[in-house]
Amino acid sequence: xxxxxxxxxxxxxxxxxxxxxxxxxxxxxxxxxxxxxxxxxxxxxxxxxxxxxxxxxxxxxxxxxxxxxxxxxxxxxxxxxxxxxxxxxxxxxxxxxxxxxxxxxxxxxxxxxxxxxxxxxxxxxxxxxxxxxxxxxxxxxxxxxxxxxxxxxxxxxxxxxxxxxxxxxxxxxxxxxxxxxxxxxxxxxxxxxxxxxxxxxxxxxxxxxxxxxxxxxxxxxxxxxxxxxxxxxxxxxxxxxxxxxxxxxxxxxxxxxxxxxxxxxxxxxxxxxxxxxxx
Amino acid sequence: xxxxxxxxxxxxxxxxxxxxxxxxxxxxxxxxxxxxxxxxxxxxxxxxxxxxxxxxxxxxxxxxxxxxxxxxxxxxxxxxxxxxxxxxxxxxxxxxxxxxxxxxxxxxxxxxxxxxxxxxxxxxxxxxxxxxxxxxxxxxxxxxxxxxxxxxxxxxxxxxxxxxxxxxxxxxxxxxxxxxxxxxxxxxxxxxxxxxxxxxxxxxxxxxxxxxxxxxxxxxxxxxxxxxxxxxxxxxxxxxxxxxxxxxxxxxxxxxxxxxxxxxxxxxxxxxxxxxxxxxxxxxxxxxxxxxxxxxxxxxxxxxxxxxxxxxxxxxxxxxxxxxxxxxxxxxxxxxxxxxxxxxxxxxxxxxxxxxxxxxxxxxxxxxxxxxxxxxxxxxxxxxxxxxxxxxxxxxxxxxx
Lengths: 279, 401
Ligand SMILES: Nc1ncnc2c1ncn2[C@@H]1O[C@H](COP(=O)(O)OP(=O)(O)O)[C@@H](O)[C@H]1O
Ligand SMILES: [Mg+2]
Known about the structure:
The complex is a heterodimer. Chain A is mostly helical. Chain A is built from 10 helices and no strands. Chain A has a single domain (37-278), classed as MetI-like fold (Orthogonal Bundle), CATH 1.10.3720. The model of chain A has no long low-confidence stretch (mean pLDDT 91). Chain B is of the alpha/beta class.
């Protein structure tokens, strides 16, 4: 008998997984289609609204929000960004990307903040959740796309779902952390004055954890933008489209302007949410 | 007045996973230390029994780790009771369900903390109103009541400030206002003044006593400071290793300490006669030299910049003239802005002691005056002051040797 030198495959894991996924798709098709609906509907609505609104009104609204949270210089930068992407012919893609980011971030918050609260309040739940979040966060971004395509097929909605999964961990983690870092004396003082567990949460823990929650939101937004662009690989629209078209056709100009639009948009959203953290 | 409001019976607290076992070992006569070594469980409080009357200031004293905080937290069940009973107005706290407990905390007992524990995200008045907010009192009413409480502690002008803009003493006044605003029958104060520096601490004690004159609440006051306990306590309970080793009025305990541990606490008050006043006088206080042309404003300025409440007025050759306080100086300036003679601001009842006086001789003076007592040598020159803390500490130290 000669030594086995790994020339033949012994574990047909790929086949097992395929069988498993096929089984999931076969038996849970309705379930996955139902999950898709809220994402699909809100995405359609926001994408439509952003694209149908006069660009100058969109710019004005962003300028007002920036001015409120991030100061004058950043406001100039925001206006510059939106005018530039318009001039580059990327207005509609930018709005689609924005809509995808908004929907992904809203869903991340709606799911992530309660998960963060729950894991702050229960060590067991945190112990269960932590490896899940670790896995989500260490998996390379495009690897997220594979199961999503299998379960939800391709398209913009699937792209957003992949983004939600990818961008969820920071807001969960930082909500959890923020609440755990609230001084125990404050919670004790609340209880001594007759706070119920809900009052402790709403009147002490969340206000105290707010900067941390907002920092989590900021990171979630940043991750969402990067993922939304990558989601063009599975047929999602937005700024990822020129990037990948450019790469496929060796059109370096097209790929670059797509990249510039993405980076500028990311910076605008980062500054605004940073400003919200500090306020 | 002497109606019983709190009754504690056979109260135990064990921190650990198997309290039954620890209780059993206690019954077999094992000590806290041994039980910890054997089982890893800590005895917080063992077999506490006492009653507190309405309107009384009941001080619980003991070294750090003796179980004071644990005991006081079982009264409102911030810490769950392992066994035994706590009755508040006849109601067994251990048997209350969550809702009844919440109700009790909102309406009958409030608490003041060593670390202040103010909500940093709320303004002073919102902090003062915190208990009322939790009890869902409507906004106008709760702000009114919070404002009233702030007035009681002299902070009405600070209502809109944030707590982190204030000094420690002022923050604790907010803490006190928060506790007063719910108009509780019982206030639990866990080392409420321990984090404050000695002069501010004395001031807060005075404030508490004067509040108590107007409205007699039942106060359970935790302290590790003998001086404080003697000053404000109607009765004192002394704890050691989770046990209450003695309860009585300050005088009773002083005259008849139950064991060596109690004696060690009070040893300072039993003067040895070895040292005299001159030996322990320190130049820790701010002195004001009186010259023509230097008036009360300059003196006040000096006290404020040294963060002192009392100033010791001397003439140029260091002869002691009297004591002024920031309050008496302010009053003088308000009444008679032009005067340069601040002898009108001298406090009454100031009796300097002699450097050769024994500690026995000066005991009464040291204990009864709010200010540190000035000490003069035989030429009537000022050589320093004796504060209560120095006095007690020195003697304690001395007898330990
Ligand atoms: N949560 C806890 N878990 C375990 N041991 C505790 C806990 N809280 C207090 N203890 C222990 O109980 C004893 C009494 O503590 P405490 O009531 O805080 O004392 P004090 O307030 O007199 O300093 C100490 O030995 C302390 O270590
Ligand atoms: Mg304590």
